[in-house]
Specification:
With 186 residues, the protein is α/β, with parallel strands linked by helices. The protein has six helices and six strands; from the N terminus they run αβααβαβαββαβ. It is globular, with a radius of gyration of 16 Å.
Length: 186
């Protein structure tokens, strides 16, 4: 759930009525946030040695707290974390908010490690996901396997079925990533 997204309430009652559905915070630093930056600008700011890392960490923590408060006000409990434009994979970001995750009861982080993406424009995501595994494990968090179907898969039911079968082969906790955006907000 994007806590500060325009469609936060859409379909929420139906989701809550379904058994076994877990909700996650889709941590947002890049979409409709005051002073939002593109993921690449966050990455370079995060990695730049000359940048004031402490100020950036305070800003990230403030955003995490704000988004968790929004969900709390709606009586929503989230079980896992992922990030919009997988911003949560930036090296060190999870460490900077680990205490906030613990306080919120979040013990699982999505790590979109799908090797098939190595041969696509999403290759940098695979590298960041691979690096994030160590940080997640070091923090005592869990991560789940996932399948990231190709962009055109949802137009063809057979391709969706294939993605679900691939997920099933990875185990019952495997997540099939569905991105319902109508446009690329970058």
């Amino acid at each position: 759930i994007i806590a500060d997204g325009k469609a936060l309430g859409d379909g929420l009652a139906e989701l809550r009525s379904m058994n076994g559905v877990e909700l996650g915070l889709h941590f947002n630093l890049t979409y409709a946030v005051s002073g939002a930056r593109s993921p690449s600008r966050w990455l370079w700011a995060w990695l730049a040695a000359s940048f004031d890392r402490a100020a950036l960490q305070l800003r990230v923590r403030g955003e995490m707290e704000r988004q968790l408060r929004i969900l709390e006000a709606r009586h929503l409990t989230v079980q896992y974390l992922d990030g919009h434009h997988p911003i949560h994979l930036l090296p060190g970001l999870l460490s900077s908010v680990a205490d906030l995750l613990e306080r919120a009861g979040i013990k699982t982080v999505r790590i979109p490690l799908d090797a098939r993406m190595l041969f696509s424009l999403r290759a940098p995501l695979v590298i960041l996901a691979w690096l994030a595994q160590r940080e997640v494990t070091h923090l005592g968090l869990r991560f789940t396997p996932c399948v990231y179907p190709p962009s055109g898969a949802y137009a063809d039911p057979a391709r969706v079925r294939t993605a679900l079968q691939q997920a099933w082969l990875k185990g019952p906790q495997c997540e099939v990533i569905v991105h319902p955006a109508a446009f690329n907000d970058l």
